[in-house]
Design brief:
By secondary structure, the chain is an alpha/beta fold. The protein has 6 helices and 7 strands; from the N terminus they run ββαααβββαβαβα. A hairpin with an 8-residue loop joins strand 4 and strand 5 (93-97).
Length: 162
């Protein structure tokens, strides 16, 4: 599979009450096709969020949206466009970052978290210098991060609850 230029197809998910922003790196093929965050069935993001908020794992986009917004979260990604091979974070290059002001100018975000190392690297390199805010890295919920069990991820992600 050859590297292909891609543009982020998913708008940011937030509301006027969003206090915690969670950034991924760039949507996987499954997420790009679904046009919604964390679309790969093996990604544990929705299981982690459901467990942390005492809710059943959402199955529909509507239920996923409600889980995020009703609990004061916002979702987006660090990368607006890039060249990527398939869904491989390690292949991301030619990065154009997302402008987080789209969210931060309209929501009282207190903390920013990056879902995994690639999101954090992109944030640190392209976003933090102009934003002047820090982001904390969380272990990736990606199936590629097999070293982390679901229970261990849930424990590590508890810090998002403010």
């Amino acid at each position: 599979m050859n590297p292909t230029p891609q543009v982020h197809p998913i708008p940011p998910l937030f509301c006027a009450e969003s206090r915690v922003l969670i950034l991924g790196s760039f949507p996987s093929i499954a997420s790009r096709e679904a046009k919604f965050f964390y679309g790969h069935p093996q990604n544990r993001f929705w299981r982690v969020m459901a467990a942390l908020n005492g809710r059943p794992v959402p199955q529909t986009v509507e239920d996923k949206t409600a889980l995020i917004l009703e609990n004061g979260f916002a979702l987006w990604d660090s990368v607006a466009s890039c060249t990527v091979t398939g869904s491989s974070d390690s292949s991301i290059c030619d990065v154009v970052p997302n402008d987080l002001h789209v969210i931060l100018d309209h929501a009282p975000v207190e903390r920013i978290f990056c879902n995994g190392a690639t999101s954090q690297r992109c944030f640190e390199r392209y976003i933090r210098p102009t934003l002047g805010r820090n982001a904390e890295r969380l272990p990736s919920t990606s199936p590629a991060n097999a070293a982390w069990s679901l229970d261990r991820l849930i424990d590590a992600w508890r810090v998002i609850l403010i």
